[in-house]
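Dear Dr. H.,

I hope your travels went smoothly. While you were away I took the liberty of generating a structure for the chain from your last submission, since the lab meeting agenda had it listed for discussion. I wanted you to have the full record in hand beforehand rather than looking at slides cold. The sequence, exactly as received, is reproduced here:
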Amino acid sequence: MLRFFDRREFLRVSLGTAGLGIAAPRTRADDGSDRVPRGFGRAKSVILVYASGGQSQFETWDPKPDAPLDVRGAFAPIATPLPGVQLCEHMPRLARLADRYTIVRSMSHEDLDHGSATYLALTGRYHARRSSNPPPSPNDFPTYGAVLKRMRVTNRFAYEAVHLNAPALVPFLISPGQDGGFLGREYEPLVVGDPRDSDAVLPGLAPQAGLPAIRLENRKTLKETLDNYHEQLAQDRKLADMSHLYQQALAMLSSSRYRDAFDLEQESDSLRDRYGRHRSGQACLLARRLVEAGVPFINVIWNHSNRGQDADPSDTDVYGWDTHNDIFDALKLHLLPRFDESFATLLEDLDERGLLEDTLVVCMGEFGRAPRVALEPNFAGNLPGRKHWSSVYSIVMAGAGVRRGAVLGASDRLGAEPLTERYGPWDAAATMFSALGIDHASHFTDVLNRPFAATIGRPIEELYG
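The corresponding predicted structure, in token form, is as follows:
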């Protein structure tokens, strides 16, 4: 039964071991004893690479070479360092790195449209309008970064969460599930669009010649003085949100460390080339820099439109994973080469710098693609593709204690249903929160002091050795 918490109880159940020395959460083991979940508190940061549009498991993490042609598709599998484990031929670098991550091949849920499924992927909860494309609403559940900010206190960075190459568009309108929802704007992640132009990533943060440090400090003092005379901040939600946004802006302006974290010009040309000079590649590089800067949660949107190719099929940067028709051309010529390049480099770069030990990397879309290749008359393109499919699909996790070189779960011979235990986006959410040291079974409260479960899933402990 849900109950209300006073401040002391709220901190006890919500913050876990997030730097406060509070007892770690306990789960019930098979022998009836209490224990800490495997992987709990192993991550200082989480990078969620969100493959917007529904990444096809057949053409990435779970090829079916023995299935009929209209199921297995046009691509061949290639070997990995793991015996019996194959990936798509157009992911050669990720195939060579298969001994650094775990593939989860039995993800499953019941939502079949991009907007509501994106909401599910980025909040861990079904939308009230399942299998639809609803607009964002102030009554939505908050995205992961907003919940994280509500549930823990850290001074590592001005923001608890940053969304890169964002927001996710479906295909040209903002999808729900990416903001503070009913928690309000105070808890929203920092949203960064195209990361390739360092000067434009966070406009207005460069020091101004006409505004020396002493004047900035005087403005800060004046703001604090005025805030002290505005008791209505405690009652007026909009004023409180505005006050907090001002505080974050002042923090960003006052510290070169914050500004420098977003400056990709500080990276070598060779490393920027290695990630790829496109939007998603540079977003992955920026994600690594934000891990080093101390940001707890970074969400890389890959790509910013789930199906921007309908507007400009010649621009690879706008391609999303929603490949109804022309799937094999879209993947071979546009999506897979860049994904293989950048996601592999992200894993290598984190590992080479020793950051993968305490960074959890998750790659997932909102669902997968159907186990039959067919032409769909209601979509652009002249060649066959695959429909949405949520009954079974694959995700990848790496770092922060996750087993290196493993496959968890399995789909059936045709890639239509799970053969083993099913996992859902709610379990991925619980895993990310647990890795960051937050009890997945704890609660947070909204502005009316109503308690809500941090997640409705359980950590995927099978990921850990």
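Two observations you may find useful: The longest strand covers residues 45-51. DSSP finds 13 helices and 16 strands in the chain.

With kind regards,
E. W.
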